[in-house]
Design brief:
Largest sheet: 12 strands, mixed
Structural class: alpha+beta
Number of strands: 12
Shape: globular
Radius of gyration: 19 Å
Order of helices and strands: HEEEHEHEEEHHEEEHEHEH
Helix content: 25-40%
Length: 272
């Protein structure tokens, strides 16, 4: 894979591409405003900055403008900071503006034609598509156990996707009997050559048995059937070695910077 050419394609198609409102879509829109591209979604959708090309002299003002904009909507949002974004001190500027960084992830990409597509599962484990709120509950349960974090925001997002854009998302749970042991999802991006993988959490007792690899192969098959050329993952330190063995290569790193609106999270006063 030509690293520079693929990174350029990723940046153009997945970060800088905009789309107008679609009355048949969820209501989310991706728009370019000056030096940023942002996604503005309805309740439950992801909101944030997907691309920026900032100048050191004006970066702080642009950051403040975006904070004011999302505050006017009453929505938390995320600034996706990539290693090659400018200015070089953008992370420090975001922290100074009230953003909180989450752990760094590695942006990894593979050409689907080069990936294994055999879905080899341990005996007694089956893949179950998620198409309703009960299935979302299974994904949320795996997420909390695998990552040790609350799944409240994820649950809201997945329910919104199922209701609003079911054709653009694939959600799958690996079941051992009645026990959900691994969960993963994939988003299709019409008009691009990419599909993106998300989740991939496996319960600790079930790791090392090939379930995560099987779910990558399962989603690669679906992406290929939809005409995609690449799979892209924002990989954690746990999943990166597995993905590298499957043929994924690192393009860059990305750090999510979260901004939470204070009035949304403040507790109401206790009345006596």
């Amino acid at each position: 894979m030509d690293h520079d050419a693929t990174l350029t394609l990723f940046d153009q198609q997945m970060r800088q591409r905009t789309r107008a409102d679609d009355p048949d879509d969820s209501g989310a829109r991706v728009e370019r405003v000056g030096d940023v591209v942002r996604q503005v979604g309805a309740d439950g959708d992801w909101n944030g900055i997907v691309w920026s090309g900032l100048d050191p002299a004006t970066a702080d003002a642009v950051i403040a403008e975006q904070v004011r904009y999302f505050a006017s909507l009453g929505r938390d949002f995320e600034w996706k900071l990539y290693a090659y974004d400018r200015p070089e001190d953008l992370g420090a500027r975001l922290r100074a503006a009230g953003f909180t960084p989450e752990p760094e992830e590695t942006v990894m990409v593979a050409e689907i034609r080069d990936l294994p597509t055999a879905v080899d599962l341990p005996e007694g484990v089956r893949l179950q598509p998620v198409t309703d709120p009960a299935g979302v509950d299974l994904i949320a349960d795996v997420h909390e156990q695998a990552f040790g974090t609350s799944s409240a925001r994820l649950r809201e997002q997945l329910l919104a996707q199922l209701a609003q854009t079911p054709d653009s998302v694939t959600m799958t749970v690996a079941m051992a009997g009645d026990l959900p042991v691994c969960a993963a999802r994939m988003e299709l991006h019409p008009g691009t050559e990419f599909a993106s993988l998300w989740g991939g959490g496996t319960l600790a007792a079930w790791r090392g048995r090939g379930i995560y690899r099987a779910l990558v192969a399962h989603r690669a098959r679906i992406a290929a059937a939809n005409g995609c050329r690449f799979l892209q993952v924002d990989a954690s330190s746990q999943s990166r070695p597995i993905l590298q063995r499957l043929g994924f290569v690192p393009l860059s790193t990305t750090t999510p910077y979260l901004y939470e609106q204070p009035h949304i999270h403040e507790q109401p006063p206790v009345r006596h």
